[in-house]
Write a structure and sequence with these properties.
about 140 residues, alpha/beta, Gyrase A, domain 2, five-stranded mixed sheet, 2 helices, 9 strands, about 15% helix, about 40% strand, globular
Length: about 140
């Protein structure tokens, strides 16, 4: 497993949480990180994409953790869980196509996991957008 800790980085996180249930709309997670962290993140995701690592754990400020895994087939699925009072865990199970699109996305800018015709598995309970900001 690859591991990155951005707990002390100026990362901004916004979560519009919706309790799960039949007919519930997905929660929405927005993450903004300095552009200087982009290469580190995408290198770790590339290691997953190549099979060198099985998954990535990324620890963020405010008790958030993001796990990134690669699916063999099917639509990407994003999940959010709240296992402890001050802890949030997001899991991004990405199809190879979405992982590649994210790695190849231009910074700065927002990458939405459900835009440009990319669909998410309806079994997920999360939509997410990721942005990198600032100068190199």
């Amino acid at each position: 497993m690859a591991y990155l800790s951005w707990q002390n980085e100026p990362v901004e996180i916004r979560l519009d949480y919706e309790p799960s249930g039949i007919g519930a709309k997905p929660s929405r997670l927005e993450i903004q990180a300095p552009k200087t962290l982009r290469a580190e993140l995408f290198e770790a995701i590339q290691q997953i994409r190549s099979g060198e690592r099985s998954e990535l754990r990324l620890d963020l400020p405010q008790g958030y953790s993001v796990f990134v895994k690669l699916k063999d087939s099917g639509l990407s699925r994003l999940l959010i869980a709240h296992p402890e009072e001050n802890e949030w865990v997001a899991t991004f199970m990405l199809s190879p196509e979405v992982a590649d699109a994210w790695i190849q996305s231009e910074a700065p800018g927002v990458f939405s996991f459900a835009s440009d015709g990319r669909r998410l598995d309806r079994m997920g309970n999360l939509e997410a957008a990721w942005a990198f900001f600032g100068e190199k």
